[in-house]
Predict the structure.
Amino acid sequence: MATLFKNIKELIQVRTEPIQFVSGSDMKHLPTIKNAYLLVENGLISDFGTMKSCPKTNVEKIIDATGKMILPSWCDSHTHIVYAGNREGEFVDRINGLSYEEIANRGGGILNSAKKLQETSEEGLYQQSKIRLEEIMLLGTGAVEIKSGYGLTVDAELKMLRVIKRLKENYPIEIKATFLGAHAVPSTYKNNKQGYLQMLVDEIMPKITEEKLAEFVDIFCETGYFSVDDTELILKAGKKYGLIPKIHVNQFTAIGGVQIGVKYNALSVDHLEEMRDEDIEILKNTTTMPVALPSCSYFLSIPYTPARKMIDAGLPLALATDYNPGSTPSGNMNFVISTACIKMKMTPEEAINAATINGAYAMGLEDKVGSITVGKQANLLLTKPINSYGFLPYSFGTNQLEKVYLKGKEVNFNREL
Ligand code: NIG
Ligand code: FE
């Protein structure tokens, strides 16, 4: 089955030579082709170029994109979309003056979500989570990482991971699973954090390898949650089980977690709202992708990741949503990109690079998605008629996408957003 998109006003993020990610001043460069065509065959990008060289081949389907642009779908490398219930009560508590930390100390926060999840059946959890997955697909996400971490018991963590696996089997979107058992210490281990960590390593990690339930391991390295030593323990154990590290780090305090991430070749270090000069320095010339989560900063009213300082120092940066019930109840990558431009002073080119190819790298998918490259999945966003791609972040809060295609097929769940 072949589809030809023709008269594309501008084809964005065109990479003829495959690249892994873009860093520093290269992030300002977003290659495009004006007045372009794009050919899709068997779900993959098979050819593209200017309309002048558009092939006259017989294709089953021709889509005229006059006035519209096409770009690769968003790559959201950090989410927690498998969860039960919501926490709008805590949202109101925060409006009334309580901090995220104070709410957590009262038994709210992650432990509140864990309680809800433990009480929900695997089927119920799947049903709740698939609504969010469909929602983000309609909003243009074509590859997503999903974490466990609201189970905090052997059964509940495995339940989360099995739900992720089932989502992966049933939807065309690329999904990567991360084991985040070390998200918070559950009340049953209140005074025994080491015992909890040991349980994650001895009881859950072997099951994960056995059932192939995750590729990555993550930990919330933060004051009051898990220390740098705990992080080292989990990353080391994860490596033994073939789990590649990613870390939640420097969200509220900078305690040296970035250094541990780099030491263990973490694929990504995420959050980074609090960055010291030495944290920026250590990330230079490494294979670890820094990931910023601007809608988390927006929702919690905490500082934004210092993107300008980091990119100007030569680092790469990826953007992701952090979609979760506590700190970011939104999976809208379009909003993330707008917020990165408006609040973090990233240019539209930098933000689009960060949300496509760099996001793909942050989940090990840079060979499959994240750019318009022959052989990659035809995961495409067709915009409404717009004047320039800068209009996407500029018109924040409005959906400028007319259609979303995953593996060449239009995403349509017979429902509106
Ligand atoms: O990435 N910071 C740790 N974990 C999540 C929030 C968890 C929650 O509040 O439920 C985050 O922000
Ligand atoms: Fe997170």
The chain is about 35% helix and 20% strand. The radius of gyration is 21 Å. The pocket of N-(iminomethyl)-L-glutamic acid (ligand 1) is lined by residues 109-110, 113, 220, 248, 251, 296, 322, 324-327 (CB under 6 Å). The longest helix spans residues 193-211.
